Amino acid sequence: MGDRKGHGGPLAGVKVLSFAQLAQGPTAVQLMADLGAEVVKVERPGTGAWERSWAGSNAFVNGESLFFLGFNRNQRSLTVDLKDQRGKEIIRQLIVDTDVVFENFRPGVMDRLGLGYDALSAINPRIVYCSGTGFGSEGPYRDFAGQDLVLQAESGLASITGRRQDPPTPTGAPIIDIHAGTLLAFGVVVALLARERTGLGQRVESSLLEAALHLQMEPLVYFLNGRWLRDRSEEGVASTFHGAPYGIYETANGFLAISMNPLPRLAQVLDLPKLAAYSNEDSYLRPDEIKRLISEVIRTRTTEEWLAIMQPADIWCGVANSYADLENHPQVAALGAFDTFDHPKAGEVRVVRSSVRMSGASSGPLERPPLLGEHTKEILGDLGYSEEAIRDLVDEGVV
């Protein structure tokens, strides 16, 4: 499948064939690509992957989807018609030298194409075949459409988020999609480690539903073991299982998050004797009452003033930043959390860089997401196709 020139990393030499789409699959693939895996992204001729034609907020730059550009870096693009036997033959040839296959179509799609795990592992028994689904490959919901918002609702996550007077409230980011992709990448790396011991690949699977449940391990374990979870707070205590003061508070000029803190110490820092009269049990039984009391005091000073008082006293707290605030956040800058690449159509594009740091190897330079089919001829040439054969496949719409 060729090498990504100039790119190293701990996963260098691991060859990935990606049929990933939307956010779940591309998240997993990009995590591996950022750490050096050599990824070929398989796309439909002419139209490409779904995420090339959609972006939240209709965010296109010179016709290029920022959604696609944010999820598909460090990869090469191969266009193949998977319904054409010649296209399937190209995939089968690639599988011989592939380590990992990623796909997150609905269950059964790849099997119907003749590209499921059984078919591809028969060609290459060392293949690690990763499938991401919405609800799992078995069960009554297996064929239902899975998407982040749907799973926030189905999994109960929305029911424990927001204030009591609000309807079930989803989060402001697709946390289930991203977490599901992270779980898939973890599963694949574990399967690659197991292959080193056994010589055999295996199928790896996870679903959006399982990712949503995993995100809720703490409250679900309480619930499943008979521990009472209170209703959502009217005043905005930020969970159904933490006691006050846990939540966001309005200051004189912004908002401040105050996390788990002993009430006596917080009472001393806030110079609020009334707060010291509440017990630890009260923080769970009377959270709204306590939050109202604290809120009255927090409004009297600016965010900066409170930070100067609370942080030296080891009160767990933080500024409730907006995205605009992150641009100049000193810790975000220190981490180098944002990166930039130049795209031939979109121009300069800023993205969130890999969140995994390893002392043993550099993740290498950031390579922009590929143009549609940009590497098709190169990849087919590596497989031994002649220029004439490639031209015929292009003319006939196979690639």
Give the topology, please.
Blueprint: E1 15-19, H1 24-34, E2 38-43, E3 60-61, E4 64-65, H2 66-71, E5 75-79, H3 85-95, E6 100-103, H4 109-112, H5 117-123, E7 128-133, H6 148-154, H7 175-198, E8 203-207, H8 208-215, H9 217-224, E9 247-250, E10 255-258, H10 263-270, H11 273-276, H12 280-285, H13 287-298, H14 303-310, E11 317-319, H15 323-326, H16 330-335, E12 338-343, E13 347-352, H17 376-382, H18 387-395
Parallel strand pairs: 1-2, 1-6, 2-5, 6-7, 7-8
Antiparallel strand pairs: 3-4, 9-10, 10-11, 12-13
Give the CA-based shape: elongated
Can you tell me the CATH architecture of the domain at 15-215 and 362-395?
3-Layer(aba) Sandwich
Structural class: alpha/beta
Q: Indicate the percent of residues in helices.
A: 25-40%
Quick description:
The chain is of the alpha/beta class.
Q: Could you please describe the fold and organization of this structure?
A:
This protein has a domain of 235 residues: 3-Layer(aba) Sandwich (Rossmann fold). The longest helix has 24 residues. It contains 18 helices and 13 strands. Helix 1 packs across helix 7 and helix 7 crosses helix 8. 38% of the residues lie in helices and 15% in strands. The protein has a 6-stranded parallel sheet with strand order 5-2-1-6-7-8, sandwiched between helices. With 399 residues, it is an alpha/beta fold.
